Amino acid sequence: MPSLRFLTVFFVMLVLSGCGGRAVLGLNDGKQGESASVVQIYVSTMRARSNDLSLPYSAERAKQINFAKFEIGIPKTHVAGEVESTSRTPSPERNFIARTFQPYDDKAQFVAALDGDLMRRPEAEREIFIFVHGYNNNFADSIFRNAQIVHDYKVKAVALHYAWPSAGSLPLYVYDRDSAAYSRDGLADTIEIAARTRAKRIVLVGHSMGSYVVMEALRSLSLSGRDKYISRISGLVLAAPDIDIDVFQSQLRDIDKLPNPFMILVSKRDKALNLSGGLTGGHPRVGSGADVAALQAENITVLDTSNLDGGSHGVFASSPTLMALTTQGGLMNDVTERGEGAPAETILADGGQVIKGAASLVIYLPAKLLGVPNGGLLTQ
Q1: Can you tell me the distance from the alpha carbon of 46 to that of 181, in angstroms, rounded to the nearest whole number?
Q2: Residues 157-175: what's their mean pLDDT?
Q3: Average pLDDT for 115-139
Q4: Contact 303, 319 (CB under 8 A)
Q5: pLDDT single digits (tens) 187-242
Q6: Exposed/middle/buried for 314, CB within 10 Å: 0-12, 13-18, 19+?
Q7: Residue 347 in 3-state DSSP?
Q8: Crossing angle of helices 320-327/330-337, nearest 10°?
Q9: Banded model confidence at residue 275, pLDDT cuts 50, 70, 90
Q10: Which among 350, 318, 32 has a CA at the least distance from the CA of 151?
């Protein structure tokens, strides 16, 4: 029945809405008060430039890539894992807010700015962290999420945000899918830009539909003979990837050499991915954790977050357990010391205290690791 179909699709979109909101940047508003801290975010985007400072980049698709730098204020009332945004006039004391905006005219200016920032940092922090957002994000939603991750995870790197032209609207899932495909070459160019800087390391993270953009960009680089830029990526993470499993396998076949390490976060409790699979024909998504063994066979480490802090679509950004493990080094130690499929109940924080919630994280190591004996079990 048409009415039943409409209600089903509406329910799907309602669940998927967890990826975004209707935030504004606040650049054109009077700023009364100070933010608790400020995060600097460089931006590379295929969004078209807008004259509206509340959202200086629109949902329209640009003909060429745009570059900028923002300073994002984090409010005094910030709760780790949350993005306290608003669709009205933001308050620096209560909301995320853009405090400055500096566009760059061309790629050369942008590379010079990145290099300048890198060389002002200690050698150990000369890293570029590239984040690619997911479905139903307007520009403010996505850059605020990036700033939240950098702040809460204490990322000591130059943050480079890749903003593709998501419509930021619930009914426009198909528009976002098309925009993701449209934006792959822009991300490929962004990876090349990062690779040409003086960064010692590059970490690439994609969330949800942004993971599709990531895989398509890597595929584009490989098919065009630019694998040397992929080799500059020091680590790749896909969080709750909204990619059809068959499509993902096809993407992998076209990429000559994947970044290593390569980690995917999955959750069987991710309602958004389970429903998007139904919306797109019934095939499960990579992030639903339906075929962990296939991912292991591709030399990918899988983190099953099904029982970790709710196991939601956005658990990668909101989980206090992941924040504790990452900032204290426990997660990497666990991945390199424990066996395939083992729960993380023995992960220790500084001082020998077990991190609350760590036992809910299950880690699946790759089925084969080059140069590592004992069937892929890494040891120190």
Answers
A1: 11
A2: 94
A3: 96
A4: no
A5: 999 999 999 999 999 999 999 999 999 999 999 999 999 999 999 999 999 999 99
A6: buried
A7: coil
A8: 80
A9: confident
A10: 318
Nearest partner of 67 among 28, 34, 89, 41, judged by Cα: 41
Distances (CA, A) of 321 to 2, 80, 118: 44, 11, 29
Q: Are 96 and 83 in contact (CB under 8 A)?
A: yes
Gap between the Cα atoms of 371 and 123, Å rounded: 29
Residue 104 · residue 48 · CB < 8 Å: no
- Which position has the token pair 């950004």? 317
First CA to last CA distance, the chain: 60
Q: Give CA–CA dist 88/26, Å, rounded.
A: 8
**CA neighbor of 369 nearest in space, from 296, 290, 293:** 296
Return the minimum-mean-pLDDT range out of 24-33, 74-83, 262-271. Answer: 24-33
Is 152:80 a contact under the CB 8 Å cutoff? Answer: yes
Flag the least confident range among 31-35, 39-43, 55-59, 296-300.
31-35
Helix (H, G, I), strand (E, B), or coil: what is residue 184? helix
Mean pLDDT of the chain: 85
Q: What Cα–Cα distance (Å) separates residue 52 from each residue in 29, 126, 291, 313?
A: 12, 34, 44, 30
- Please state, in angstroms and rounded to a whole number, the distance separating the CA atoms of residues 328 and 108: 37
Q: What value does the mean pLDDT take over residues 42-59?
A: 94
Rounded-to-integer distance, Cα 201 and Cα 123, Å: 11
